[in-house]
Amino acid sequence: MARGTCVAVLAGMTTTLATHDVDVWRERIRAEYLEMPGLHLTMRQAQRLWGLDELTCAAVFAVLEREKFLRRTGAEAYARA
Questions:
Q1: Entry pTM
Q2: Which residue range forms the structural domain that includes residue 63?
């Protein structure tokens, strides 16, 4: 795999996303959650709010979850961990 890319697997599909794009969105979404501490968004709501495609949104949320910045609630929403 080339440097500066990451592989995302979603619903049985594998694709390559630019690491730069994921990092940019990770920082923007992190800032939004810091600015609004009670923010809880489902994946679909986040896609609409930030105009993201499903794959990019899933990759960014996976990184934020892995970093323990976000957690998934029982209602499949993402909230600050």
A1: 0.76
A2: 5-80
